[in-house]
Amino acid sequence: MARDRRPSLMRRAALRDGVTDVDSARIAEAMAQLRHRGRATLHDRLHRVRMALVLAVQAGLAAGLSWIFAHELLGNPQPVFAPISAVGTLAASVGQRLRRTVELIIGVAVGVFLGDALIYFLGTGGWQLGVVVTSAILLTIFFGGSVAVVIQAAATAVLIVTLSPSVQDLEIPRFVDAFVGGGIALLVTAILLPLNPLRVINRAARPALDLLSGQLDICAEALRDRDRGSAQRALERLRENKEELAAFTEAIEGAKETSTLSPARWHRRSELTHYAEAADPIDRAMRNSGTLIRRAVTMIEDEEPIPEPMPDAVAHLAESVRLLRHEFAVGAEPEQARERSLRAVSEAGRAYAQGVGFSGSVVIAQVRTTASDLMVASGIEQEEANRLVRQSFGDQEQPVGGPAEQNAPPKPPTAPPLG
Question: Which of 236, 306, 347, 376 has the fewest C-beta atoms under 10 angstroms from its C-beta?
Fold first, then answer.
């Protein structure tokens, strides 16, 4: 057959005398990348499962216990809302579950009140349901209710309008279910399966602090190599820090809630003080580092002088952030992080003495300010941190240029301001 007489694609490729078969190498490389990506994706998914495992177990336990409690002990034949309320409470952000329970009950109260009142005056039906839901949303928003309260009020109003004609005395079980579900959820998180607050915070702090240290490292290398593009990418990545900071702040609130509600975690309260007090200065360090990197980009663009100690100062800041994260994680006094912050300031002082331009002086000032932020995050009072930064910087004066200036009376030492 004609098809049999034609050489196959592989045979034709092999018949190309003197031509290297680069296609196979490219295909093999592409397949290797696909396999690596598949493994990475599987690893990420397993990591997300491990992160959510405790929450999943908490939700399952709370749902089961709330149903048993409402059905067996309170005699509710269909306690549907109890497990829903329990899962809704646990679905709230860690640190907001007590508030979510209160919001749950308030939303139910508003929905029951409006549902009953409007049914009494308007009756039931499609347009009445629309009026009830609209009224519930507008009323809760008027009184400053959160999104959770608005949703609960509207959902409860829907249930009252649609189920009240066929289900007698729905209002009281709805109230009871809200209490039972929210209470069981808090019981599970506080007594039966309380989270380790330090582990929660360490896990949430790592991305934020790794982001900060990583971009400072990139900035230091960009200054050494005068690589404007690399510095710009570091700036753009650091600006995308809202998710990491939000997770960190949320974890701190969750740790506070756990250490308050759970007797088994009361002994952790003092250990949480460092993290709780570090949130604001770490946020400031992020913003000041952003200014530092932005001015570093301008330095490179304007071809300003970059003294050798300047990249070292930025690199020491990055190492200080890493040490701070490590010492917080192991519960140690962050002395190494403080020492490295002061070393960054000392290197910045040397760079300033060697001479910098306008943007360079701003970079030096931001090194001082960021170091002060990190010192405060480590547990040092702001005034003491500023004093130590000034001491480490020293009395630096930039070198003067011309001979006339060199013979002039000495000027008082100056230094970039401390933010």
Answer: 236
H-type alpha helices, 355-402? 358-377, 382-393
The tens digit of pLDDT for each residue in 320-354 reads 999 998 888 777 888 999 999 999 999 999 999 99
Tracing tokens 């078969």 back to the chain, one arrives at 21
221-226 CB contacts, 8 Å cutoff, 24+ apart: 221/311, 222/296, 222/300, 223/296, 223/299, 223/300, 223/306, 223/310, 223/311, 223/314, 224/306, 224/311, 226/300, 226/306
Quickly state the pLDDT bin for 254 (edges 50, 70, 90): low
Q: Region 92-106: what's the mean pLDDT? A: 65
Band of residue 122 on the pLDDT scale cut at 50, 70, 90: confident
The residue type at 376: V
- 318, 216 contact by CB (below 8 A): yes
The position carrying tokens 């509207």 is 154
* CB crowding 361-393: b at 16 or more within 10 Å, else e: bbbbbbbbbbbbbbbbbbbbeeeebbebbbebb
pTM for the whole structure: 0.59
Backbone angles phi, psi at 331, to 5 degrees: 75, 25
Q: How many Cβ atoms are within 10 Å of 187's Cβ, its own excluded?
A: 18
Residues in the chain: 419
Q: How far apart are CA 90 and CA 99, in angstroms?
A: 11
Lowest-confidence pick of 19-23, 149-153, 275-279: 19-23
Encoded tokens for 45: 């998914």
* Cβ count near 69 (within 10 Å): 19
Give per-residue pLDDT as tens, 194-218.
666 667 677 777 888 888 999 999 9
Spatial CB neighbours of 106, under 8 Å, sequence gap ≥ 6: 145, 149, 152
b/e code 306-334 from CB counts within 10 Å (16+ = b):
bbebbbbbbbbbbbbbbbbbebbbeeeeb
Q: For residue 249, count other CB atoms closer than 10 A to its CB.
A: 17
Measured CA to CA, the distance from residue 390 to residue 284 in angstroms comes to: 19
Q: Which of 142-146, 194-198, 214-218, 407-411 has the lowest mean pLDDT?
A: 407-411
